[in-house]
Structures are given as C-alpha cells and as structure tokens.
Design a protein that fits this description.
This protein has helices at about 10-20, 70-85, 100-110, 140-145; strands at about 1-5, 30-35, 40-50, 55-60, 90-95, 110-115, 125-130. The chain is of the alpha+beta class and about 160 residues long. It has a single domain, classed as Gcn5-related N-acetyltransferase (GNAT) (Aminopeptidase, 3-Layer(aba) Sandwich). The protein has a seven-stranded mixed β-sheet with strand order 1-2-3-4-5-7-6, sandwiched between helices.
C-alpha cells in the first residue's frame, strides 16, 4: 500500500459517493490523498478542505476493508497534514449513527468536541471531532519537536 496525491479528480470522484457528497460538489480547494494497493486500486481517500489559518477539515472514505489502515499509512497522512501543510488542528464531523466511524476516529486519536446539529453530509446530527498537532501520536519525534517549538524549521 502507498499514499498518493496523483489523479486528484479520480480520488475525489471515488470518495464523493462514500462520503455522501453529490458528484462534483467537493470544495475546489480539496486536497486528496489516496491509499492505493499493489494493483493500483483505491482502498481509501482522505480529503482535506475548509482551510482556515492553520486548521482544516478532514474526510475519510474507504472501501470498507481495514487492511489499508496501517501505522505507516497514518504516519504519512498525519505528517502530510501537520508537517507539510503545517496544520495545527484537524476537524472531522461524523454522522452520530455511524458507530464504526466514530470508533475509528477515537482509535486514531481524535477527541469528541461536540454535536453538530444536522451537521453530517447525510443531514443527520454529526459528532464533531478534533485533533491537535501536539496530540497526534502518529508523528515522528522530529515533527513533534518542531510543532512544539523545540527546534526551528530550516529556511529554504
């Protein structure tokens, strides 16, 4: 398995119906990371959008299997978000009735922060989750130290 940003439109088109988003309605600023298997099949797509300062929303779609969700994959995804994009916070809104997705978010390290009334893509109440960069257990010590101000970023 590998993470790829290639063919953004294909990744988003694959993810939209799973996320409950009408075709072509994903915001134009969306960045998509695809989890691709050895046969070049998409297994999952993680989208980042709604960027505001150093915050963004994330959306996760998968093929329903769990074998794509490895420590390596999550290290790459969270390093992209918190190191490459320099985000300090990621938000998720998950339909309240989607217990497997709620459990998954908690296992990833997201914290429940509230209820978004009618806030899920399917029109139901959504649970608002957040993860701060300094709390992310998937980051390397080097990235955590930089985020926490213990080391300076090298100037380009």
């Amino acid at each position: 398995m590998r993470v790829s940003m290639q063919n953004r439109d294909r990744l988003i088109a694959w993810a939209e119906p799973i996320m409950g988003v009408d075709p072509g309605r994903m915001p134009p600023e969306t960045l998509a990371l695809g989890v691709i298997d050895d046969n070049e099949a998409i297994r999952a797509v993680i989208c980042f959008n709604a960027f505001y300062s150093t915050h963004a929303s994330a959306h996760i779609a998968s093929d329903g299997s769990r074998n794509w969700s490895t420590r390596h994959i999550w290290r790459v995804i969270f390093a992209f978000a918190f190191d490459h994009l320099a985000l300090t916070r990621i938000n998720l809104v998950i339909p309240q009735a989607n217990i497997s997705a709620v459990t998954f978010a908690l296992k990833l390290g997201f914290q429940i922060e509230g209820l978004a009334r009618y806030g899920a893509n399917d029109g139901t109440n959504g649970i608002l989750f957040g993860m701060l960069a300094q709390e992310c257990r998937w980051l390397s010590q080097r990235v955590k130290d930089r985020i926490n101000g213990k080391i300076e970023c090298a100037e380009a």
